[in-house]
Amino acid sequence: MQELYYSIDRQQTDNLDIDKLSEYFTPHLGEYVSVLSALEKLNVAILKAMDKTKEEYQGSSVLGQFVTRFLLRETSTQLQSLQSSLDCAMDAVHDQGCTGRRILKKPQDLPVQRLAKRPGRRIQRNMCLSPTDPYSGMLTTGVSVEPDNHWGSQINQLEQLIDKLECESPHLEPLKEDTLAGTYKSNILLVQRQMSVKERDVEQFQQALKIYADATSSQLNNLHVSVQNLPDRSCFIMYEFWQDRLSWMSYLQSTISKTFQRCIIDSLEDPEMVSTMLLPASWWIMNNN
């Protein structure tokens, strides 16, 4: 190692900068010239796509947002597949390099040193898949990646962006209408939204919630808005009554609804929980008469 160090540091400055390392390794790159070039282009493409996603996601339709989340998730799993294949290659090279030196070590020391040097790699070796297989990445979700690795940081950024985007859209449960209803307006829709808020952001959240509740209650197709704050908890439950399901779905795409989502996304402790229920319209008419 000392001989290698001095061969790179030819001017003997006791410092290995980027220029010296580049000058030394360039003649030895071989097939890795095209690999490193492709990685540089891929890195630029990913950052460009993430910037565009950040700018256009909020203004996209519900279908457009779903497609964006799907593409980000698939990109992440493909990168994880590539990462696991590289880890397999590194393990194989490491094992071959250690074969000739094992006779110099004590047998009882080998397991400890091996585990201390590369924890978690054994799990990845059994899950290596071909990076050229377009479906292989779907099977590698959850494979651990070393945090100090460049690709690991890229994957983590993608996963964080995906999680944030998924939180910005309410998780809607499928709605089953009463097939026995005789008329179009025989049912009204009850929407329950439960939001757990970080303690430090409660005051800011309450201000945004009041603006949203006032604006929503003034809508033509909205029947009523009620907010409940659970005692001893920073949890708010909002009930919205709408004349029909289509009215509520249309309101989700309005500026008021999207502005409220943007305001509270960073204040929530967990993703918002949304549930819906159809109620007979006669109940509402009878109780309000």
Could you characterize what this model shows?
The protein is built from 11 helices and 4 strands; from the N terminus they run αααααααβαββααβα. The chain has 289 residues and is an alpha+beta fold. Among the domains are: 1-93, no CATH class; 187-280, 2-Layer Sandwich (Alpha-Beta Plaits). Strands 2-3-1-4 form a 4-stranded antiparallel β-sheet. The radius of gyration is 28 Å and the shape is elongated.
In short:
The protein has 289 residues and is of the alpha+beta class.
What fraction strand? 5-15%
The counted number of beta strands is: 4
Query: Any idea what the shape is?
Result: elongated
The CATH topology of the domain at 187-280 corresponds to Alpha-Beta Plaits
Portion in helices: 40-55%
Give the rounded overall mean pLDDT: 75
Query: Which spans have pLDDT < 50 for at least 5 consecutive residues?
Result: 103-148, 177-184
CATH class of the domain at 187-280: Alpha Beta
Q: Give the terminus-to-terminus CA distance.
A: 89 Å
CATH architecture level-2 label of the domain at 187-280: 2-Layer Sandwich
Q: Give me the number of helical elements.
A: 11
Strand order of the largest sheet: 2-3-1-4
Order of helix and strand elements from N to C terminus: HHHHHHHEHEEHHEH
- Radius of gyration, rounded? 28 Å
Global structural class? alpha+beta
Which sheet architecture does the biggest sheet show?
4 strands, antiparallel
